[in-house]
Specification:
alpha+beta, 2 domains, 11 strands, disordered N terminus
Length: 326
């Protein structure tokens, strides 16, 4: 029997890539920095990107063993936003990984998608990160103990049944209370009769005439993005109210709102809104007005796309019905 390998970790701690444009920089490292990975152990991989608030960054989504050979991503954390200095932010994301195979391992260049200030979509690649995984030492001289008889203990099944029933009843009561308090049924008939464009324009007008932009910025951006999200739902029948900004932008290329200009409006709006809502970014009044203009431009130009599509469909139906009657 071959003796178990005892391999010391060979770790390239940090691979830094200067990205394709401007001051955007990307690095990949282990967090915390370690010098041993035991086979089957979990470890954290961190991706850091330095960028400005006008760019939109899409971090990779490792699914299962897509993270690499003999590697698997157990959990992908949320994106942390850290302000380095004026107009410069560092975006970080941590991934909980696990190694199943021993020996040398590596990450190929990891791609990160970026939308720059001109609405151009490009991909940033990191340098590879290599490492070694240590096998578990096996003691060949170990001798197992004799198997002991099974011990019997008093049954507590009735107690577990009672606790389970009480817990289930409590959860059911809590669910009913939350549904009555927070969930309001949607009026599907009203949603079918509403004109999405007219509704969105009216809602934006109300928000623009309020003083939220100067007094309660977080509430202002929450209402602004909610209007845009519900407008997209009404125009496309997509369900996006519970999706993140990254997920919504990733869906746009497969919808009728796939033009770079429309994606640029959304990216600009969601970028500042996420910073205000989650990173306590102090948006000034000019930024609030600029993002209101982004929302108005998106709704106006996307409504033109919807109308052109409907007109084209009507012409096709008339052409088809004309041939049928002949």
């Amino acid at each position: 029997m071959v003796a178990a390998m005892n391999i010391r970790i060979l770790l390239t701690c940090l691979a830094i890539l200067t990205c394709l444009a401007g001051k955007t920089q990307m690095s990949i490292s282990f967090d915390p920095e370690i010098d041993t990975i035991l086979i089957g152990d979990q470890f954290t991989l961190k991706i850091s990107i330095t960028s400005n608030p006008n760019e939109y960054i899409f971090f990779p989504e490792f699914k299962g063993k897509d993270a690499g050979e003999d590697l698997e991503c157990m959990e992908a954390g949320a994106v942390d936003t850290i302000q380095v200095r004026d107009s410069i932010f560092r975006l970080e994301r941590r991934y909980l990984m696990i190694a199943f195979g021993g020996g040398r391992g590596s990450y190929d260049s990891i791609p990160v998608v970026r939308i720059n200030t001109k609405g151009v979509i490009d991909t940033i690649y990191s340098n590879p990160l290599s490492f070694m995984v240590k096998y578990i030492d096996i003691d060949k001289d170990f001798k197992p103990y004799d198997i002991k008889n099974i011990k019997t203990y008093p049954s507590l099944l009735w107690l577990w049944i009672l606790l389970g029933a009480a817990g289930a009843g409590l959860l059911a009561w809590l669910a009913v209370w939350l549904l009555k308090k927070y969930v309001k049924p949607k009026n599907t008939v009203a949603r079918q009769k509403i004109n999405p464009y007219e509704w969105a324009v009216a809602e934006l007008s109300k928000l623009q005439n309020s003083n939220l932009a100067s007094s309660r910025t977080k509430e202002y951006y929450s209402r602004l993005t909610d209007v845009v999200r519900e407008y997209i739902e009404l125009q496309t029948d997509l369900s996006i109210m519970e999706k993140t900004s990254e997920e919504i932008l990733a869906l746009m290329p497969s919808t009728i709102f796939s033009s770079p200009e429309l994606v640029k409006y959304l990216a600009s709006l969601f970028q500042t809104a996420d910073l205000v809502k989650f990173a306590k970014y102090p948006a000034i009044l000019d930024e609030c007005r600029a993002n209101m203009l982004d929302a108005q431009n998106f709704i106006t130009e996307s409504n033109i796309v919807v109308n052109e599509l409907k007109q084209s469909q009507n012409q096709n139906e008339e052409h088809t019905s004309g041939h049928t009657s002949i």
